[in-house]
Amino acid sequence: MTLGQCLSLVTLCILVFLTSSTPWYYFEQNATNSDENDINIEFYIDKIDTDDYDHEYIYDMEDKMNNHKLLVNLTTVLSLVILAIGMFRVSSVDNAKKACLVIVILSFLNGIIFLTFPWALEEEYDWFSDRGIEGSKISFSGTDFEDEKRYFWGPLNAWYLSTLIIPIYGLLLMWSMDNWSSS
């Protein structure tokens, strides 16, 4: 196995790891008259990170995020399996390609399922309505201006990694594995 092939497998593992350690979603509130009422919140796969302290998910949101975490854990294990296959030749390249395809599918599926996150927040915590944002304005990504406060919300790094970067990189990696059996 060449250095380039090793690095491509390690890169896949790093990308998959980042989906569990970086934020998936954010919500910001900026007051027009002062900075003291500003709120910055990031939603990770296992916690809610605010400016003051971290919160755990509760009720149905905990179940929803546990399902996302399960898919992230599965892709993590599969990326390590592919790394082992590539580094130690414990199985065939065809099996590595199959595992890579499963990572592509699971990662993309996780990102698509996550599209329901804002409505789950509203349903469970009245997240948007407690801040004066009408239900009709809730979308996956958006802005709103209510009572001299501007609100921003939308996806962050982990969602883009899971939905776009990992599937594209995984497909390119699968394509490059065709040449591995000859080297």
Give the helices and strands, then pairings.
Elements: H1 3-21, E1 25-31, E2 39-43, E3 48-49, E4 54-55, H2 59-88, H3 93-113, H4 117-125, E5 142-146, E6 149-155, H5 157-177
Antiparallel strand pairs: 1-2, 1-6, 2-3, 3-4, 5-6
Helix pairs in contact: 1-2, 1-5, 2-3, 3-5
Fold and architecture overview:
This protein is α+β, with helices and mostly antiparallel strands and 183 residues long. The protein is 55% helix and 15% strand. It contains 5 helices and 6 strands. It has helices at residues 3-21, 59-88, 93-113, 117-125, 157-177; strands at 25-31, 39-43, 48-49, 54-55, 142-146, 149-155. Strands 4-3-2-1-6-5 form a 6-stranded antiparallel beta sheet. α1 runs antiparallel to α2 (59-88), α1 (3-21) runs antiparallel to α5 and α2 packs antiparallel against α3. The longest helix is centred in the middle third of the chain and has 30 residues, at 59-88. 26% of the residues are buried.
